Amino acid sequence: MALAACTPAPSGTKVTVNVVDSQGNPVTGQAAVYQTGSGAWQALAPSGIGQYTFTVPSGETRYGFTVNCPTGVQASSMKATTYQATTTEATALKVFCPLAFSGSAAKVSGNYNLSAVGGTSLTVYSDTDLKFFSGATGPYEISSAVGSNRELVAVAQDIGGNYVGVKVLRGLNVTAPIVADINFTAADVPATGVVSDFSASLPAGFSVNFGSYFLSSSGVYTALLNSTSGTSGSYNKVPSTIPGDLHWIYAIARGSGGREIAHIKVRANPATESITLPAPIPTGTTVTLAKLPTFPISHLVSDPDFRGYAVLYLWEGLPGFPGGTGAIWQTFVSKGWIGSTTSYTLPDLTSLPGFGGAKPLSGEQASYLLGAFLSNQSVGTLLNSSTASLGYRTGLLHPLYPPRLDGTDVKWALLQGNFTVP
User: Cα–Cα distance between 102 and 156 in angstroms, integer?
Assistant: First the structure.
């Protein structure tokens, strides 16, 4: 009897990665790589549309995954996301390509009337776009992802810039261009909640604002409902919600030297909310500037809610080249992956297929955002949850923006800077 030879499956822990676009649709990257332990990064082929798997060998827990998202041109205009974590924290990842969109869109248009709430301008938010319209009445037009049960969020402001109305258009069947009028009524005047005084956590010299955003159940881009300077007062919320709707209640404070601190609370039914800002990154903190910078990652690590560090690195990326809109590299390194280390250098992936532009050229203009990240959610939950996307406008997404989970709290302390690449 002849016995067929077989290759045994590698022993260890399997990590599953699902790569999705800005709307949560599966999308396959231009290229993907992974790392186990401190070993070399190596190419990783998809096992399905947007699906990747690899095994962290027995005795090892640390791993990394990077995808070059399917947007823009190759080379220096890379759009990449990296997660580095441990198998004890997360074995399932949902990795977002915030500037990618694999679906199709159609036009939603009609007329609007803000007279019932005294509005003089309108902002309309869809899941793929936002548009501003001036005047108390008039026509509007916006694009929306094709699908059933789509939603639009319409926000009215008066001549003084006050937010005077918010209306959610629900159940739109956007399978082709449709007409849907937006007529505000007295029932669309925002409800209000209260932010308790948080001045005790505001560092000296920091300016602060707080307010609210609304996230509709179908995933419409977060609609700004108001923003107010100060350390206490009222915020707006949608007067009538359904299961799946969420609000962000937020406070952001900015200080000297590119420092920023923030607290975001994700709530289905917010009321009186307490804000506590984290300690800012200390003045004098420096980043070692290079084509691949080295970042200090010791701030807030002893906080019980510390979950890791985020790095957003941007550079020109083929300036003047058609389609070269700049490179964006988002990275998150978890608490477990960091361990006792106090600095982090972005990995050099340029020798791997599809990552030849994963490093800027000398003389290009670059910027970075370094964030110590706190949350009441676990690393595993954070890295495998749908987020509230700001992606198509800014490219900023996970993990600096919290998951769509009621009861989530997220805090961060950021350091931002710009430099000419040496």
Answer: 31
How many whole angstroms separate alpha carbon 93 and alpha carbon 53? 10
Q: State pLDDT tens for residues 260-293.
A: 999 999 999 999 999 999 999 999 999 999 999 9
Tell me the C-alpha distance between 326 and 330, whole Å.
13
Exposure string over 131-162, b if 16+ CB within 10 A, otherwise e? eebeebeeebebbbbebeebbbbbbbbbeeee
Is 291 in contact with 422 (CB distance < 8 Å)?
yes
Task: Return d(Cα 164, Cα 158) in angstroms, integer.
Answer: 6
Cβ pair 22, 99 in contact under 8 A: yes
CA distances from 389 to 93, 295, 380 (A): 17, 26, 19
Is 372 within 8 Å of 333 (Cβ atoms)? no
Inter-CA distances, 69 with 81, 82, 212, 353, 370, Å? 8, 11, 30, 13, 21
| Interatomic CA distance for residues 215 and 222, integer angstroms | 5
What's the pTM value of the predicted model, to 2 decimals?
0.91
Listing from the earlier edge strand, what are the strands of the sheet with 163-174? 130-134, 121-125, 147-157, 163-174
List pLDDT tens digits, range 7-48.
Answer: 566 789 999 999 988 778 899 999 999 999 999 999 999 999
Per DSSP, 393 falls in state H
3 state SS of 188 = helix
Residue 11's CB: how many other CB atoms inside 10 A?
Answer: 9
